[in-house]
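Hi V.,

You were right to ask for the full record rather than a summary. Here it is.
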Amino acid sequence: MDRGAVTPVLTEKRPPRRIRRAARRVLDSGIGRVRAVAVLARADEEYSSIAAQVPATRVGARDLLHTASYAVALEHGLVEQGLEPGRARELVADAVFSSVIPARSFVFRVAGLRWRKPLERARWGSKLMRRFYYTSPDWIIEDVDVDQGFGFDIRRCVVSEFMASLGEAELCMDAICAQDERS
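Predicted structure:
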C-alpha cells in the first residue's frame, strides 16, 4: 500500500465526543453560550465532509485525525461568527488541548508509578505514547541525544500530512503540534 496516498475510510457523521465536549466548554467561556451553540452547529455540519478525507490509519492516528478534522471545522465556524482569526485559533488550540490532555496525563501517571524523577517519567511517558499511540508507519519518530535531557525528531506525522492536504498546515502547527509545548 502506498502510504503517501490518502485513502478515505468510512467515518461517523458526528465528531468525537471528547473534542466536542472540550470545544463546548472552551467556547462557552470564551465567546458565550449563544455564540458557542451557533459555532458548534456549524462545525458539526462541516465535520463529516472533512472527516471523510481521513486516511486509513491505526487507531491512535485515527483518533487524532478526527480531532484535527473537527479543529478545522471549528475554526471555520468561529471565523464565520466574526471572530478575529488569531482569537479563533487560540480557542481551537485550547479546545484541542482540553481534549487530548486526559489521555496524555494518564500515560504519564502510569510512567510515574515506576519512575519518580521528572526527567525519567517524561522520557518513559514519551516512550509509552510512542509504543501505543504514536505508532509506525503513521509516525516515524527517532530519539536524539540531548545534554541533560531527552529529545526526539518527528520524521513523519500523518496528522501534519493530512492537515497540509487540506491547506491547514498552520492550524496544525498552532493547534495540534503546539500541544507538546503546553503539556
